[in-house]
Design goal:
- There is one protein chain.
- The chain is α+β, with helices and mostly antiparallel strands.
- The protein contains twelve helices and eight strands.
- The protein has three domains: about 100 residues, no CATH class; about 100 residues, Butyryl-CoA Dehydrogenase, subunit A, domain 2 (Beta Barrel), CATH 2.40.110; about 150 residues, Butyryl-CoA Dehydrogenase, subunit A, domain 3 (Up-down Bundle).
- About 55% of the residues lie in helices and about 15% in strands.
- The strands form two sheets. A four-stranded mixed sheet has the order 1-4-5-8, covered by helices on one side. A four-stranded antiparallel sheet has the order 2-3-7-6, with no helix packed on it.
- A hairpin with a 3-residue loop joins strand 2 and strand 3.
- The longest helix has 30 residues.
- It is globular and about 75 Å long.
- It comes from Christiangramia flava JLT2011.
- GO terms for molecular function: acyl-CoA dehydrogenase activity.
- InterPro entries: Acyl-CoA_dehydrogenase, Acyl-CoA_Oxase/DH_mid-dom_sf, AcylCo_DH-like_C, AcylCo_DH/oxidase_C, AcylCoA_DH/oxidase_NM_dom_sf.
- It holds the Pfam family Acyl-CoA_dh_1.
Length: about 350
Amino acid sequence: MKHTAELERIVSRFNGQKNFIDKLTTFLSSNNYLVTAIPPNDDLYSWSQNLFNLLFHFGKTDLSVARVYEGHVNAIKLIKDFGTESQRAFYFNEVSKGKIFGVWNTDAPKNPLKASFTETKMELNGSKIFCSGGYRIDYAIVTYGSSSNRQMAVVPINSRTSVQENYAFWQAMGMENSRSTELTFTNYHIEKNVQLGNPNDYELQPWFSGGSIRFCAAQIGGATSLYEETIEHLRRKGRHENSQQLDRISQMRVEIETGKLWINKAKEVYGNANRYSSPEIVDFSNMMRNVTTTICEKILLLSTKSIGLPAYMNGHPVEQKLRDLMVYVRQPNPDMVSHNIGLYGVNQTME
């Protein structure tokens, strides 16, 4: 990937700092990666190849970078799929100006986001959690309403005094730089025309589930970085030709190459979605999620076995990578994903 060295310098210099997202947004904008997220009207396959390569390489460099960027990609796709012509023109122009987007769907359990309306305006009150990018995101797609009447809206965030960030919420052991904080809206007034699509569009298949193949590519990138850093550690210690270490390296290599094959298939599915039915795309994404989790868990185990205690020491090249991957690989409803994979297979054999 171009600009890898530049991104690595940003990650190293601003790691753990609250302005990490600002520096990342500047990097993504100046190198046209924000605009890259906008799907073209034709040749989606070539665009898909480039997009998944970016997600993989961002994940390989820093998983928080990949998480924030994947959120931007998700938001742009939702606007492309469900926005009006004028909304697409406006928001895509904002992207060209260097604005970064996110998607925040999860409500705070005791204070869900709610909307009230006048003739032309809406008022938002309540909290969202796991808001990757936090207060530094320029526009966020938020959801509100009951589970049977869930509506999206695209709302400006950065510098809004009616939006308060609770950074203390994000106490995970990894992915600190993603700033996946709690955001509280208080008497937040905005025009009603920021509503996106129709109620429940957010959960429409295939892409409500199918979009997971994007973060799978990033996770495999993170696992690849762990694999390579493990070999570098063994080489520094002169243990890279030890027979037991080579056995672990061989196992890790097979897992990484398997992940890359799944990414190649994901590029094809994402770029040629019209060739697949909605259930086929959902099933593929479920399988890729399942496989990716297995790959990452094996890499985490084999890497730490190979390196030993130093892997858990602050400052070691793999220590933060371990923590970030452990957190990022934990995605919602893994048991349901496995259940649906099996059910799809059973139903296929009955046809």
